[in-house]
């Protein structure tokens, strides 16, 4: 199942759908095991009513409302089947033949309030999952021969379901054999391997047996909701409660968004300024193999676990330690595991705030300062704003302040770094764009009725009127795309990096209990997160699906195959409307050729850029691999080759970064107490982070350096690109006087 991205950071951190935020939940009992359920699971009257009520909303009020008919039924069936057995390891084609009549009956099940069909599929899934794990446990008693030339296809998304029981048995023998071989390559003895895997499979059986009717209903309703569009979800009462708790906890935890990927739980996003980000050791794509509580507690193997069960184990109280055994993203399935200790903390808005730095570039005898503002999200303290606090925290206010400081430091250009900025407040995106333009529209929003609202900047003046660039990547979504698109449409600055995510829709939460006669204080019907609007650029094109295409593109990393709006089969199509009434300030296309030529010549000689390209190539190679040998000697050779590649990468990084300190956080001087060791580790991580090369940011700054040179040498371009006569706003008092400062943003409407 592909991961749904977030409109706002908090949406991305919700414990819902395919993404889950590992955080503290003091008011939830996350340690008490759920009881085993009794099969067959049966739907309740309330669930049947909730399904019908959801259908009424989705068929009438969704932005792209579609009828719930036989055509939609087939989409629901496909999505539901993939949610139950997306890896095609439980059902056979004979099972699917039994399900076949349900393909066109899912709509009837909802309208007629008869969910027996969908529940029968879920019940068979539970039965088959227990059968398969018991079969795997039986295989462990005899062991395996690893001198054969067999291979295992571990990526089964594009293959068909096994045709019969015999083919399913072969698949599970290879699957179990691969699990054994991984541990054998890690140096484990046969008895230890047998014990570890038996415990893993037994634990999986226990968790499957704990699935209840709410799990079945949640899975089915998610299949319906996601069949309308990728960002619409159904949240049952339990999921809605977790969502509400996550919204109230002020981002306490390790600061990571998780997703299910094959049999692993993988890191989907890292929250800026959280424990995971500060450690410098957790990266997007890393896979969690095991979890341990405290500094010395036993490690619990979590391969094959449900996502919410992994989240429960990572959750914990503030200031407590959790240890993660990680299989790095850039390592193969047999790669070396890393043990990382993290202290759960509250991630405050202040820690996530925009930050600045200055990059000084010397080239051809010319020295220029380029300012960089790193903006992790379009954040706003909604609570303080509602309470009338005049000093409420906001991205726009923070960036305006940083721009003033960069002016004082004499920078000649500013880079807005929006890489992996998943969005946030629409009001903040609108206000922040206003810091770089005088006045005018920023974004157009169309609702389900087709009505278009233009939102923009009404305050005259700018906080920065000099040259600028916006650095984006595939993780730049929603509000980030609105900002980048507006800057591009106005010709106000260069957009540099990778094509953005392409999320151009707005969601709203609908509390279904409000529309029923539920007099109970406890929610029973759940909530819908439903798409209600779409964003459009001021030039009339949507940011939906296509995202924003940079003026100067950097190499893609390969994630675009399974990450981004275009990877969803049912993503809303790209459309366009009439452009807003705006006037571009410049057209930079004529100068992109010169900038690109300089960029290509420079990166061809850059060791850091070459290293980045080599790492990207290796990452793509590992991601594209779908089969693996079950021969021990061959796997051992492959692992040694990969270790050599990774060692070469590390050596090249050290040479580029000038980092020769080999001390590791997990092997620090045992003479230090825990607090001293933690402080030393944090200081080392900050020191290494400052040394670490960021070739994409450095190259973006250099491209802007080149652009400043072109502007200074071309009076006509300067007059077009730079407002108020083409002068640099930080050069002289006269220019500053001619460039009115953008007033501090007032309290915007909540989004």
UniProtKB/TrEMBL annotation:
Task: Mention one GO biological process in which this protein takes part, according to its record.
Answer: signal transduction
Q: What is this protein called?
A: Peptidase S41
On whether Signal is a keyword of this UniProt record, the answer is yes
Outline the extent of the PDZ domain.
Answer: 244-315
Quick one: signal sequence residues?
1-20
Family statement drawn from the similarity comment of this UniProt entry: Belongs to the peptidase S41A family.
The entry lists its GO molecular-function terms as:
endopeptidase activity; serine-type peptidase activity
Q: A cellular component term (GO) from this record?
A: outer membrane-bounded periplasmic space
Sorted alphabetically, the keyword list is: Hydrolase, Protease, Serine protease, Signal
């Amino acid at each position: 199942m592909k991961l749904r991205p977030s409109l706002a950071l908090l949406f991305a951190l919700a414990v819902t759908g395919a993404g889950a935020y590992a955080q503290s939940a003091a008011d939830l009992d996350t340690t008490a095991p759920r009881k085993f359920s009794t099969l067959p699971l049966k739907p309740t009257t309330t669930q049947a009513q909730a399904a019908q009520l959801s259908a009424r909303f989705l068929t009438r009020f969704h932005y792209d409302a579609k009828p719930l008919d036989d055509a939609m039924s087939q989409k629901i069936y496909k999505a539901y089947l993939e949610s139950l057995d997306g890896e095609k390891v439980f059902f056979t084609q004979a099972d699917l033949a039994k399900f076949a009549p349900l393909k066109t009956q899912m709509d009837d099940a909802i309208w007629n309030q008869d969910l027996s069909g969908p529940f029968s599929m879920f019940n068979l899934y539970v039965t088959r999952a227990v059968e398969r794990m018991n079969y795997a446990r039986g295989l462990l008693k005899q062991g395996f021969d690893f001198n054969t030339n067999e291979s295992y296809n571990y990526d089964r998304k594009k293959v068909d379901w096994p045709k019969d029981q015999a083919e399913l048995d072969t698949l599970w023998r290879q699957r179990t054999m691969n699990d054994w071989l991984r541990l054998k390559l890690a140096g484990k003895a046969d008895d230890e391997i047998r014990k570890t895997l038996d415990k893993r499979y037994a634990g999986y059986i226990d968790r499957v047996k704990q699935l209840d009717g709410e799990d079945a209903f949640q899975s089915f309703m998610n299949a319906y909701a996601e069949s309308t569009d990728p960002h619409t979800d159904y949240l049952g009462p339990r999921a809605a409660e977790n969502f509400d708790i996550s919204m109230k906890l002020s981002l306490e935890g390790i600061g990571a968004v998780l997703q299910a990927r094959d049999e692993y739980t993988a890191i989907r996003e890292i929250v800026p300024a959280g424990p995971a980000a500060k450690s410098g050791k957790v990266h997007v794509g890393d896979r969690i193999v095991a979890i341990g509580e405290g500094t010395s507690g036993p490690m619990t193997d979590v391969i094959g676990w449900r996502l919410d069960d992994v989240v429960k184990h990572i959750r914990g109280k503030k200031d407590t330690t959790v240890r993660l055994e990680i299989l790095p993203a850039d390592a193969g399935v047999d790669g070396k595991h890393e043990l990382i200790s993290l202290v759960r903390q509250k991630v405050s808005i202040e820690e996530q705030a925009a930050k600045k730095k200055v990059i000084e570039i010397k080239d051809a005898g010319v020295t220029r300062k380029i300012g960089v503002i790193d903006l992790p999200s379009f954040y706003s303290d909604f609570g303080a704003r509602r309470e009338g606090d005049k000093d409420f925290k906001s991205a726009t206010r923070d960036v305006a302040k940083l721009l003033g400081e960069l002016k004082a430091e004499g920078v000649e250009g500013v880079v807005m770094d929006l890489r992996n900025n998943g969005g946030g407040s629409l009001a903040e995106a609108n206000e922040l764009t206003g810091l770089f333009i005088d006045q005018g529209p920023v974004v157009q929003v169309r609702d389900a009725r087709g009505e278009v609202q233009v939102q923009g900047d009404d305050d005259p003046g700018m906080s920065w009127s000099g040259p600028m660039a916006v650095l984006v990547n595939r993780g730049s979504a929603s509000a980030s795309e609105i900002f980048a698109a507006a800057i591009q449409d106005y010709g106000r600055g260069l957009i540099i990096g990778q094509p953005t995510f392409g999320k151009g829709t707005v969601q709203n939460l609908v509390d279904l209990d409000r529309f029923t006669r539920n007099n109970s204080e406890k929610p029973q019907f759940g909530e819908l997160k439903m798409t209600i609007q779409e964003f459009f650029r001021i030039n009339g094109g949507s940011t939906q699906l296509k995202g924003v295409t940079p003026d100067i593109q950097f190499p893609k990393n390969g994630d675009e195959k399974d990450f981004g709006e275009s990877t969803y089969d049912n993503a809303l199509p790209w459309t366009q409307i009439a452009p807003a009434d705006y006037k571009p300030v410049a057209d930079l296309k004529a100068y992109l050729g010169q900038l690109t030529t300089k960029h290509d010549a420079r990166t061809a000689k850059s060791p850091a850029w070459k290293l980045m390209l080599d790492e990207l190539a290796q990452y793509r190679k590992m991601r594209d691999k779908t089969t693996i040998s079950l021969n021990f000697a061959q796997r051992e050779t492959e692992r040694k080759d990969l270790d050599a590649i990774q060692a070469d990468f590390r050596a090249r990084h050290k040479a580029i970064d000038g980092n020769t300190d080999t001390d590791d956080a997990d092997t620090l001087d045992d003479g230090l107490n825990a607090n001293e060791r933690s402080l030393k580790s944090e200081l080392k991580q900050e020191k290494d982070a400052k040394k670490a090369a960021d070739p994409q940011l450095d190259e973006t700054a250099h491209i802007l350096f080149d652009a400043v040179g072109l502007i200074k040498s071309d009076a006509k371009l300067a007059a077009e690109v730079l407002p108020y006569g083409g002068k640099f706003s930080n050069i002289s008092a006269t220019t500053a006087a001619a460039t009115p400062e953008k007033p501090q943003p007032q309290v915007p409407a909540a989004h």
